[in-house]
Structure to design on (220 residues):
């Protein structure tokens, strides 16, 4: 028994072209360039659609008294859970919006941070409130899901995706390539891509779900 199947991007490209009737002998440099672009567009689309669990990382940021805003790690698509450690315990802090932050009467108030605003600009940041004080040595830990590594040809490079997403990858790529080369097959490939994507999406983290109404504000 082996579990070493890890096809290269070139292999997946030829498989995707095969699904629209373009066989390997017919492939040109332009075919490969289009496949390269569409593969990266596909990865961007998946990132925008939801959490790509295999790219989630835990990041650590030392906090400084009086400093509210910190840069988020490069390549971040979205910030998930944020925790503050005071040297002895972790506290989950809650997100709030730009409007919430702009509405604060005293945004420079210092204390144990209870809330954070993730500013989704080109160089994203996290702003904490209250601003860290000097009563402890604070560390912020936060989970992010990140941009998938670029799909690149050469040196038998494999895509940065799990095994159970391979079929969805080829199906999605075949759908995109059908738009360019065989428009008559686009609808059929779209149905196949959607089916494969939804099946792959079933492989997510499993945990109990609890819904509890919030009856009071988390911060003052």
């Amino acid at each position: 028994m082996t579990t070493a199947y890890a096809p290269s991007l070139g292999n997946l490209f030829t498989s995707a072209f095969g699904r629209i009737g373009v066989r390997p002998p017919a492939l040109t440099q332009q075919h490969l360039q289009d496949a390269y672009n569409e593969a990266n567009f596909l990865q961007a689309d998946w990132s925008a659609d939801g959490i790509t669990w295999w790219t989630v990382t835990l990041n650590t940021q030392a906090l400084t008294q009086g400093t509210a805003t910190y840069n988020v790690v490069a390549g971040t698509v979205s910030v998930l859970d944020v925790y503050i450690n005071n040297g002895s315990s972790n506290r989950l802090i809650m997100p709030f919006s730009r409007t919430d932050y702009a509405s604060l009467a005293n945004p420079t108030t210092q204390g144990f941070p209870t809330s954070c605003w993730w500013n989704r600009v080109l160089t994203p940041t996290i702003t904490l409130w209250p601003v860290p004080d000097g009563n402890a040595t604070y560390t912020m830990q936060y989970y992010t899901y990140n941009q998938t590594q670029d799909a690149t040809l050469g040196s038998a490079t494999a895509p940065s995706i799990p095994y159970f997403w391979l079929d969805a990858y080829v199906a999605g790529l075949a759908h995109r390539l059908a738009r360019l080369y065989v428009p008559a097959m686009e609808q059929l490939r779209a149905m196949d891509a959607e089916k494969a994507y939804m099946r792959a999406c079933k492989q997510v983290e499993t945990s109990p779900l609890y819904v509890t109404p919030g009856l009071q504000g988390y911060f003052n």
